[in-house]
Amino acid sequence: PAGGASLRLCSTRVAQEGINKPVIDRIIRVDHAGEYGANRIYAGQMAVLGRSSVGPIIQQMWNQEKDHLKKFNELMVAYRVRPTVLLPFWNVAGFVLGAGSALLGRKGAMACTVAVEESISEHYNNQIRTLVEEDPEKYKELLQVIKQFRDDEREHHDIGLEHDAEATPAYSVLKTAIQLGCKAAIFLSERI
């Protein structure tokens, strides 16, 4: 530019003043990882059950997860948050969990959905509490996103129950194992 003036391109960044950067970094990092993992789970389920009667239902839930991931990709840029270094692991683990649960049949896939979405809904509720305690007005947009996604996850949970998730052999064992995995993934993805 003439006269030595600098040109500043438009940015999608959020003003960083006054935000609790460590808290926001952890929230966005782990939520991005979770939505990435959910996409991989549904990809695995569709690989096995995509042409079955439950395929369109799985696809519908997956489409919502794709929208969630897209939004967290945008938020990562806006808030300048780095992704977890564990994404390559979640890529494989998510697909294996999705395909593995689908190999148990429609009920197995739905049991996986119930377990994961119940864990994520609880996780989102914890984040909502944290942001409200911090400053609900300052984090208004992020709160709206998390509340909407939590509601979507609860809907997926309910769809799983409506499609006989609880009729899966060893349902409570499977659900507990998946939820322990979710808790570990959340813990690690917030930090690494």
UniProtKB/TrEMBL annotation:
<comment type="pathway">
    <text>Cofactor biosynthesis; ubiquinone biosynthesis.</text>
</comment>
<dbReference type="GO" id="GO:0008340">
    <property type="term" value="P:determination of adult lifespan"/>
</dbReference>
<keyword id="KW-0408">Iron</keyword>
<keyword id="KW-0479">Metal-binding</keyword>
<dbReference type="GO" id="GO:0046872">
    <property type="term" value="F:metal ion binding"/>
</dbReference>
<dbReference type="InterPro" id="IPR011566">
    <property type="entry name" value="Ubq_synth_Coq7"/>
</dbReference>
<dbReference type="Pfam" id="PF03232">
    <property type="entry name" value="COQ7"/>
</dbReference>
<protein>
    <submittedName>
        <fullName>COQ7 protein</fullName>
    </submittedName>
</protein>
<dbReference type="GO" id="GO:0005634">
    <property type="term" value="C:nucleus"/>
</dbReference>
<dbReference type="GO" id="GO:0005743">
    <property type="term" value="C:mitochondrial inner membrane"/>
</dbReference>
<keyword id="KW-0472">Membrane</keyword>
<dbReference type="GO" id="GO:0010468">
    <property type="term" value="P:regulation of gene expression"/>
</dbReference>
<dbReference type="InterPro" id="IPR009078">
    <property type="entry name" value="Ferritin-like_SF"/>
</dbReference>
<dbReference type="GO" id="GO:2000377">
    <property type="term" value="P:regulation of reactive oxygen species metabolic process"/>
</dbReference>
<keyword id="KW-0831">Ubiquinone biosynthesis</keyword>
<dbReference type="GO" id="GO:0008682">
    <property type="term" value="F:3-demethoxyubiquinol 3-hydroxylase activity"/>
</dbReference>
<dbReference type="GO" id="GO:0006744">
    <property type="term" value="P:ubiquinone biosynthetic process"/>
</dbReference>
<keyword id="KW-0560">Oxidoreductase</keyword>
<keyword id="KW-0503">Monooxygenase</keyword>
